[in-house]
Structures are given as structure tokens and as C-alpha cells.
Design a protein that fits this description.
The structure is a homodimer.
Chain A lengths: L1 E3 L4 H12 L8 E4 L7 E4 L2 E4 L1 E2 L10 E4 L3 H13 L3 E4 L21 H4 L3 E3 L3 H17 L1 E9 L7 H15 L31 H14 L5 E5 L9 E9 L5 H10 L3 E3 L11 H4 L5 E8 L6 E8 L3 H17 L13
Parallel strand pairs in A: 1-2, 1-6, 2-5, 6-7, 7-8, 9-10, 12-13
Antiparallel strand pairs in A: 3-4, 9-11, 11-14, 13-14
């Protein structure tokens, strides 16, 4: 196994999860940019030396995680596939390619068998949202989706986590707050802007939520409206979801569907003030779903709130669970002659 | 003029605005609970002694602001009306009474002429939202509304502002975070729970947004779905609004409608990263409206983001502007014999 982007926020989480979840490793190699090559990373009592990620070095690797940006994926994925790796990519570069499956293991695992060497992972907000939405879609048939997100700064990366922390420290010390990562102060603020703006006024993040949901659920004509917002939370995204369905809905069936779904934990007892918050679902495998109610804007509508770890469920964990499922089901071809390349 | 609840968050803002905006005062008396009676409040270089708010003391007052909770309104409003006061109430106690107008001065000022002594002010989220929504409704005819809020802690009151600040200070000092006001930590968190839960799973805040919007816009059958969420922002609420309209919409008309509307400031240039944030609209008279776009979930839909000061636009300023408009238009009857009571 190999991890490209091992020094980044998602790469670090992936390394931790690979070891904690005791993935059946033959070997584990960590890669990053030339700048980080030679550095030592310690995790779970083990030491790893970071290698430079570049074409030609992935020959003996069976599963290669790309936990970096789209440009790294475009530069390295073709070479890794040619070398016989199964590439599991967290970037958005390949997600909408027709011949690249976009897989959440609990929802559409079939892509883990039919892939041609490349498997994409969904956007963090999409993945967290679908943990609540998919079981409802399976019961009632999704028709229309209106969502607003509450996204944590770790979704931007480690430097954004440091920026929020530094702003909070400056606030307490009564010093001026500095900003570099975000165009506006994020401490004590909300910024309705994630990724760049398109000509239609939607951000890239908003368009991804629409397109990726359509692809994962196999609903090419699904109507989706998303508003994505950065909030001063360190870790775990939350999403306010309003969904219209094809068939009549009822709360008991909806609750049971969510409770039975592997990816979700139903946290829904308003009388006891029980509902998910991002703080409670940071570093959790499942996403918390609550505030489930018959929606008052649609006849067959349900509204709910979901919180889930953007670095885990929305990135590293989803990627690793894809690999785990392939191994468990014997879908991973034994590596052929590539190791001798 | 009198202000009941003068020591609270909204009362303090009201006092400040009355003086800063140079309301034509004959006299100004401040009231609070017996506990605060006798205290001195300084504002704008003037000193005021707080009196106990109780029936029988409002005889010489023309306009009485009730800036306290619903129980205070129920205890004092009938007596004040009997004493000839025009009562402008910020609580939710009377908002839905059929014979009490619920007034935003830029939207439905007619209630300021037709009232019977009681004028209610809308909920803070409703008021901020309508600054963006009303001009669009006037152009296109509102049909359906799906909103998610990002509400600041000052909406809960001064003790919640102190709680967020104390939690942030404890975080920086690496001390345990304490909570009293909210059931969960609010620093670095989002809490999808404002006001108490109803049997339908909606919170009081969510139901208010639906009911009050219907009343203010005169649309009793309007379909509304709201999700209200507390975020770690000190001041100014934001709302993600998705609205379906009766008639075809276009962006140029929508933008012009918002830009022309007194209550709104259009801040909408995504290419220049210009959109409203709560930090920018704290202590602003107008609400910022941006991220305006043709909605992708509805044929005749518009989505936008609005930020506005919950203590001002959502409470104190709205109440004061109601009084200002009455004075300016000569709608305030000269106080009759009541002063001699």
C-alpha cells in the first residue's frame, strides 16, 4: 500500500486509520512532494520515511491512495494505473469521469469490482450528507434536494485549522486578527464561499454536491440546490437537508431506515435535547443524523440534520473503507508482474 | 417614552439607538425588574435611574417599548394600553394575535395606523430574512420557502455572549470548557436547536419563522420549511434562503429589487469575493444580501444569503423604526388624560 500526500491533513488521518483499523498490510510506503522527501513520520509506534511522489516509483504497490490535490492526481494517477496499482483518489479531478466509479462503500460498492484501476471518493459534504439521505432515498425515492452546509475549517486543510486557532488566540489576547487562508476572518464569523465561484453563481463545492449526489445515487436528473458555508468549527461538517421524495413518507419508516443503515447513527430525541453536533461527531466512523421531521414545505418531504467527520467519512475513512471492502470481498487482483518493473 | 427591560441586551441597544438616532424625546424613562430598580445606566453622556416595571407606572408615557420576555409582556401590556401608551413589544407573546399588527416598517407599515395600542415586532431571524425576501416577493410572488439559519449567540442574550467568550478563553488557556446557557458547548460547534421543540419536531424558532412570515407578507398558505441553528458568532444572524416564486424570475430584476429596497444592501460580486458575512453586518442598519442566483431546484427559484444584526434589525432597531415612522407620519395620537391618572 502507498499513501501520496502523507504529510497533509487527510494523509495523516489515513495513516492513522490504516494502522488503527489494522488493515492487512504487506508493506506501507508514504509519499509526498520533493520538499517533504526524507522526513520521518511516526504513527502507532512505527516510523516511516517519506519518499518523493513521482512517476515510476509505484511498481510494487497494490493500493495507492492519492490524498493530495487534483494536480497531483492528474500528474500521478495514469502512471500508477499503468504500474498496476488500484488508485483510490480523494481529489475532485476524476470524480465525474464516466469510467471512474465514485464510491461510498455502504451505498454503491459495485464500482469497487468494475473499476479500471481508478476509484474516486466523493467530496466531504456530499459523503456526510448521503449518510443520512441514502437510506431515505432507498425507501422513498429522492426527487428534490435543498441543502445548506456548516463546514469545518479542517476541510480546507491544516493551515486553516491553524488560522482559526491563531485568530481565537489573538482575540483573547486582544491583538489584531490576521488572515491568510480565508478572504475574511473565520473566528466568530460565517463565510458563504467554499471553492471558487462558477458563472451560475454557485461555488464549486455547491456544484460538486449536486453532481456527485446525482452520480452516486444514479439519479442524473435530480434537482439539487446547495449553499455551502464555512463556520468556525475545527472538525466535522454538518448539513441541514430538506428533501422531497417520489413516494409518501412517514417518520417511523424513515427513522428505522436511518437506524438500520451502516453509515449512520440516529441521534434524534428532541425532548431529551438529543441531536447531532459536529463536536460529537469529530473522529467518529458513523455520521450522526437527527432533527428528522416531516417537512412543511413539501407534501412528501423530510428534513434532517447530519454531522460527520469531514476528514474521516468525507475523505480518509471513506477511501480506506473502499480498500477494506475490496480486500474482504477478494476484489483486489493479486499484483502481477508490475513489482518487477 | 419608556423602555421596559432596559438592562437587557435588546434594551441596552434600544437606549443607545434612541439617543444616537436622536428620536424626538419628551422624556425617557427606563424600567426593569425590581432587582435592577435604582441602578444607574449611563448612555450617550446621560444618566438614567432604572425604575421597577409594574402596572400603574406608565401613565405619562406615550410610547412604551417592551424589550423583555413574553411573561413580562403578558403582565404589563394590558395595563400600559389602558394607560394610553402605544406598546411596541419585542417578545413573541402577542405576535400571532389577530388584532395585533406584526410590523416591519419597510414592509407593512399600515399596522402602525390601525393598531389598538399594541404593536408586535417580528422574531430576529424572520426580520433579517425578510430584508432580502420581501423585495423579491413583491416582484415575483413568493410560493415556497426553505431556509437554514446561522444565528449568533447574542440572540439568546448577554449571558450567552459571555458563555461563548468564556469557552473561547478556557480553550486558549487549556482549561475545561463550562456550559450553562446552552445544552452543548457552543465554541467551535453548531447547535441545531433554538427555542423549545414542538410535537412536529420543529423548534419554536422554526415555527415562528413560518408563521410570522405568513402574517407579515399576508400569505396564510405559504409553504415554509426552516432549520434554525446556533453558531459561534457573537452578533448578526445569517440565513441561507431558497425561495420558489409564482412568476418567472430573472437575476437582473431580482438584483435591482434588492438594491432599491430600503432595508437591504446588495453585496453581491462573487468574482471579487464580495458577499455578506455576519461580522460585516453587526451594528449595521441594513441587512446584507448576496450570493443571489437562479435556484437549481426550482424552475422559478432564487437562492440568496442574508446577514443582519439580530439585536438591531431583529429587535431594537425595528421597534424604534416603527416608532420613528409613527412620529414622522403623525400617526401617534397626542396623549390624552392618561398622564393625570
Amino acid at each position: 500500500m502507498g499513501i501520496v500526500g502523507a504529510t497533509g491533513a487527510v494523509g495523516q488521518e489515513l495513516l492513522r486509520l490504516v494502522l488503527e483499523r489494522e488493515f492487512p498490510l504487506k508493506a506501507l510506503r508514504l509519499f509526498a512532494s520533493a520538499r517533504s522527501a526524507g522526513k520521518t513520520i511516526e504513527q502507532g509506534g512505527k516510523k516511516f520515511t517519506v519518499e518523493e511522489a513521482k512517476p515510476g516509483v509505484f511498481g510494487d504497490i497494490d493500493i495507492l491512495f492519492l490524498a493530495a490535490g487534483g494536480s497531483v492526481t492528474r500528474a500521478l494517477a495514469p502512471d500508477a494505473v499503468k504500474a498496476g496499482c488500484v488508485v483510490i483518489d480523494k481529489s475532485s479531478a476524476l470524480r465525474m469521469e464516466p469510467d471512474v466509479p465514485l464510491v461510498i462503500p455502504e451505498i454503491n460498492p459495485e464500482g469497487l469490482r468494475t473499476h479500471r484501476g481508478l476509484i474516486a471518493n466523493p467530496n466531504c459534504s456530499t459523503a456526510v450528507m448521503l449518510m443520512g439521505l441514502f437510506p431515505l432515498h432507498r425507501k422513498f425515492g429522492l426527487k428534490r434536494l435543498i441543502v445548506s452546509t456548516y463546514q469545518s475549517v479542517s476541510g480546507t486543510g491544516a493551515e486553516a485549522v491553524r488560522e482559526l486557532e491563531a485568530q481565537v488566540q489573538a482575540h483573547v489576547a486582544d491583538r489584531p486578527l490576521e488572515k491568510k487562508v480565508y478572504p475574511y476572518q473565520i473566528a466568530f464569523n460565517c463565510i458563504p464561499h467554499i471553492d471558487s465561484f462558477g458563472a451560475d453563481g454557485y461555488t464549486g463545492e455547491e456544484s460538486k454536491m449536486a453532481q456527485e449526489t446525482r452520480k452516486i445515487l444514479g439519479l442524473p436528473d435530480l434537482k439539487v440546490s446547495a449553499t455551502t458555508v464555512r463556520v468556525p468549527v475545527v472538525r466535522a461538517h454538518s448539513i441541514s437537508v430538506c428533501a422531497e421524495f417520489e413516494r409518501p413518507v412517514d417518520l417511523a419508516t424513515a427513522r428505522a431506515a436511518i437506524a438500520e443503515f451502516d453509515g449512520a447513527e440516529l441521534v434524534d430525541d428532541p425532548a431529551q435535547k438529543r441531536y447531532p453536533t459536529p463536536l460529537d461527531f469529530a473522529e467518529k466512523v458513523k455520521c450522526g443524523v437527527g432533527r428528522l421531521r416531516l417537512d412543511t414545505a413539501f407534501e412528501n418531504g423530510l428534513s434532517f440534520w447530519v454531522s460527520g467527520d469531514n476528514l474521516w467519512r468525507g475523505a480518509a475513512l471513506n477511501a480506506l473503507m473502499n480498500a477494506e471492502l475490496m480486500v474482504r470481498n477478494g476484489w483486489l487482483q493479486p499484483k502481477a508482474a508490475a513489482a518487477t518493473a
